What does this fold into?
Amino acid sequence: MSLIVQKYGGTSVGSAERIRAVADRVAQTVRAGNQVVVVLSAMAGETDSLVSLARELGGDAPDPREYDALVSTGEQKSAALLTMALQRIGQPAQSLSGSQVGLRTDASHARARILAVDAEPLTELLGSGTVAVVTGFQGVGPSGDVTTLGRGGSDTTAVAIAAAIRADACEIYTDVDGVFTADPRVVPNARKLARVAYEEMLEMASLGAKVLQIRSVKFAMNYSVPLHVRSSFHDGEGTWVVREEDVMERLVVSGVTFNAKEAKIRVRGVKDQPGIAARIFTPLSEAEIVVDMILQNYAQDGTTDVTFTVPVGDYPRALKIAQEVGSEIGAADVEGDEAIAKVSVVGLGMKDHAGVASRMFRVLADEGVNIHLIATSEIKISVVIDERHTGEAVRALHEAFVDSGAKEPVEES
Ligand code: ADP
Ligand code: ASP
Ligand code: MG
It folds into this structure.
């Protein structure tokens, strides 16, 4: 007998018919002799509409406590509905909210971090042959208020629960067949990876592959939870996210990702002297704005330009701060651009292969795509380009690195 956590995403519970199909799969898993905890997202589109209602009535910055009280309701609904569907086919089941499973978080509404999960209520239910249906995305903060874990957070709920009850596997059911070498909606011939290492998946998730929330991958890596990302539409094998040593096929590039949700700010003509970077970035960090890429140009005539990227949601605030600091430090001007995208190639194989960066730049140059910023780490290379070139850049990089002999060494050309 295995202990399995199954998480179903929004599309997988998007209608009464889909919920019935999920109930059948859960019941079948139990009949096969397993104990099952189900973690659910809200029905497709539900969280988006709750978020826009919150904006309509609460303005740009609705009260965080009330925002979470509202957006967490989507999961209450789907969990209760699936429980009813299970009971109707003779499978005992009970729905549980974040607070009922003791999923305790910190107090940061809308992006709360999980502190602890209480395994006991779940183990008790499972012991009595009941399926536990847990609301994803929500927890309970220090003062007893409902908190939410950030968009896509049900993945993290599932992995945290799997870690707490020491599940044998955590299955993430979604609307694609697994983790692909690129978003299959953008690259039609992207292929499914049989296995991907936690480290690669972490980079892919943080660089735009929204198939798993970043924190869920961190959790899985830290607690060695075997993750299986698979389709809720059929029974085929999906992608296993595993330890590096368990990946059979080491690709130079395992994934090409993009993120169009960043914006770029350039502070031009600042004095090339100690302390300038601190003057620019301290107020941004005080405002809790996470700066991603930073580039300081080579100084000419004693002045230099500092360019950086921020999440597009923080762009108006970040631009305002940069303009204020810019005038204090005598910058020539401050300009911003929202129409940018970050395109990245990710792969553990890059550790052993030189020449990936130069080949990436060549491919983009051949496509006529101008590169604004570059960032590299051991297993990824990211570039910032104009947003309008995103699709063609991703497809060209996929063709160069994945379609044509991804396992071959990539040499300087
Ligand atoms: P769910 O509602 O099941 O949580 P999401 O919409 O959050 O599903 O994530 C699944 C989506 O992630 C897919 O429909 C796909 O478009 C997108 N995606 C982006 N990059 C990738 C990738 N590399 N592999 C698979 N899916 C990806
Ligand atoms: N329903 C939440 C969202 O849409 C959480 C999730 O689906 O994972 O972001
Ligand atoms: Mg998701």
Remarks:
- Residues 408-413 have pLDDT under 50 and may be disordered.
